[in-house]
Amino acid sequence: MAVIEVTAKTFEDEVLKSDKPVLVDFNAGWCGPCQALKPIIAEYAESHPGVKVVSVDIDEEDELSENYEVFSIPCLVVFRDGEEVNRQVGLISADSVADLVEA
Amino acid sequence: MYDIIIIGGGPAGMTAAIYGRRAAKKVLVLEALSCGGQIINTPDIENYPVEEHISGIDFSNRLHKQAENLGAEFVFEKAVDINDLGDSKEVITAKNTYTAKAVIIATGSANRKLGLENEDSLVGRGVSYCATCDGNFYRNKTVAVVGGGNTALEDALYLSDIAAKVYLIHRRDSFRGEEANAAKLSEKPNIEFVLNSNVTALNAEKRLKSVEVTNKDGSVRTLEVNGLFIAVGRIPENMNFARLVELDEAGYIPAGENCHTGVPGIYAAGDNRAKEVRQLVTAVSDGAVAATEVVKYING
Ligand SMILES: Cc1cc2nc3c(=O)[nH]c(=O)nc-3n(C[C@H](O)[C@H](O)[C@H](O)COP(=O)(O)OP(=O)(O)OC[C@H]3O[C@@H](n4cnc5c(N)ncnc54)[C@H](O)[C@@H]3O)c2cc1C
């Protein structure tokens, strides 16, 4: 599946109420490591239809990044049943992305 | 079997791939994370010949495409060891073993850590190694930068335009960075120097709250900060290969300008090699030299 852009308006429906696990990628256009992580995340989304993958542009959505205490990007946060279960900051490998969601 | 395996898809490794492919060799690049290496961290490259300005990520993506278009293969796995079988070499990753006639180690360097107990767990909760990535989270807040080289000075200058206050903590009484940067710093009213001091503890409740700094004279000070930017240099990523290849005291491969490691068929290119200037131009230069030497070695 493709990566879905989410906003403060759609976060609850797309992430918190999702019945699939959700991987949220907090990122920004000016952040190099975020741009390097993007294709890894996109490929993960394509090859893992059982996981919903969404992206939050922290420049547009400062309320979301504040609520979820994101202070360093890229920041990947995994949600299950509306609860945060895992998080990782910084550029990581494709294998580590899979491990993060499965853990 | 490949002709050449290149460990590391940074500027040095990808340039070696271009030269290897142009000599019609079968080339595999093994990259642990994503192509580009350290340079993806900077939005502004302004000292690379011909390009007056380019971002690190654009530089990386264009170089990656160039190598790929020439037929270099890329696999995203981390190399953890090399077996020297004489005429061939095995490169081991967590999942696979790849074989080639020759290997170029182009693993660059990683952020040096302070080595404090809770440092890793506070990354993303107040501790950062990338001012340009995370500076914006500290608008009108108080931050500290630790380090004395150019990266630390540039980080402090960058952050001084965003944060209310910036402490610059350095273990010596003067800076190693460029004069121009040091001069600009002293003009910034919101930068306070904390010299002759080491960061000795990170105090946190969920997030970083303050840092403890200890002066050479033994006095201890606690600085209330929202963020700490660590810029205390980089360490070469050669340890996986120390069994086979000689390293100097600082962990660099003491290969000369011809990039020979002393082990026939194994070469070193880029920031992980012992040298004076660690920049893109010298990394790509090493890539070209190492690949040319490898081709000579293979063709015999
Ligand atoms: C913030 C910042 C700004 C900079 N700005 C400039 C600038 O403006 N101009 C300039 O000329 N230079 C600049 N530099 C320096 C420049 O980035 C480096 O000199 C250059 O990237 C070195 O290239 P390299 O290929 O040797 O190593 P690296 O860029 O470090 O690349 C090494 C690659 O190898 C991979 N790797 C490591 N170990 C393994 C393993 N075991 N298996 C597989 N892969 C592995 C890493 O993931 C990485 O992708 C800057 C550096 C930083 C950090």
Structure description:
The complex is a heterodimer of chains A (103) and B (300). Chain A is α/β, with parallel strands linked by helices. Chain A has a single domain (4-102), classed as Glutaredoxin (3-Layer(aba) Sandwich), CATH 3.40.30.10. Chain A has helices at residues 8-16, 32-47, 62-67, 94-102, and strands at 4-5, 22-27, 52-57, 75-80, 83-89. In chain A, β4 (75-80) and β5 form a beta hairpin. Chain B has 300 residues and is an alpha/beta fold. In chain B, 24% of the residues lie in helices and 28% in strands. Chain B has helices at 11-22, 56-69, 119-122, 131-134, 150-160, 179-186, 280-299, and strands at 2-7, 27-30, 73-75, 79-84, 89-93, 97-105, 109-111, 127-128, 142-146, 165-169, 191-194, 197-205, 207-215, 220-224, 227-230, 234-236, 266-268. In chain B, strands 1, 2, 3, 4, 5, 6 and 17 form a seven-stranded mixed sheet that branches. Chain B has a five-stranded parallel sheet with strand order 8-15-9-10-11. Chain B has a three-stranded antiparallel sheet with strand order 12-13-14, with no helix packed on it. Chain A binds chain B through residues 28, 30-37, 39-40, 65, 69-73, 75, 87, 89-95, and chain B through 32-36, 40-43, 55-57, 60, 76-78, 94, 123-126, 128, 130, 132-134, 136-137, 207, 227.
Brief sketch in words of this structure:
Chain A has 103 residues and is α/β, with parallel strands linked by helices.
Annotation keywords:
heterodimer, A: 103 residues, alpha/beta, Glutaredoxin, 5-stranded mixed sheet, 39% helix, B: alpha/beta, FAD/NAD(P)-binding domain, 2 domains, 24% helix, binds flavin-adenine dinucleotide
